[in-house]
Amino acid sequence: MKQPVNDITEVLRGLSAQIESMQKTIDSQHATICQINRNGQAQLRKIQSLERMLKKKDKELEELRKRLSKYEEPPKNSGNSSTPPSKEQMRDEIVRRTKSLRKPSGRKPGGQPGHEGNILELNDSVDNIVDERPGKCDECGDSLDGCDTELDYITQIISLPELKPLITEVRHYVTICRTCGKRVKAHSRRRRSNAVVYDASVKGFVVYLSTVQFLPYNRIAAFFKEVFGLEISQGSMVNWINEARRSAEPAIEKIKEYIMQSPVVGFDESGCYCNKRLDWAWIAQTVYFTLVFHGKSRKGRELEDRFG
Questions:
Q1: What is the pTM assigned to this prediction?
Q2: Which domain holds residue 200?
């Protein structure tokens, strides 16, 4: 049963008070939420700043680890990395050259029992023969001159000839024709340069020492001066080597042609210093032909430019 409301004013006043109290509560909660949001944003900025600091510290730690690894880890050499032998330290090179992978066998050094030895065979072509005969009898002391002899054994001694340059003087004459009086020369036009020249044997030896034995010019010059007493300038060596290269170009092109026609070719490169610059000595090899050439880099472009 519904009850009538006699005093509506009191009811509205109570509702207004409740609404006002609720509004205060909402305002207080809103202020609290705003404060929490402000504190959260500050914490977020602080966390982001800490993350940046951590990244910076991680980077510094990695750099310190790299610097420390030089002292803790073994240094890189040609055996445990791609470092070429020319870049490794002297002590690593000494170990690499002296360390042997062979295990001791316990046997004495030298030829083993039952080993088939190799001896030098006597040469049929000799330059000088020396007959060695006894002068007196070691039994009675009498002279052995005019006694019968028989060959006992032969010993051949191999020695180098005297390392002295052979100097040939060519004297060029002019003959006057008795009929017409013309002065006839038996030689080509006179050289304007030095009258002393080197022949093909000296030039070929220089080319061999440079291109086959890879000796630098200063060592070749020192070798000729100390061994033969000849002072050869490095400029002359360069000219002789360039002359030999021009003469060998047809053969080099032919070898390159054979290599390009081969179905399988092996390539390899090795670093070499040329005028204080790191260049590369390349080799191209088939079953029958080998070509060694100089390159500016170790990239495949060097092979494409040369062989296509």
A1: 0.53
A2: 195-249
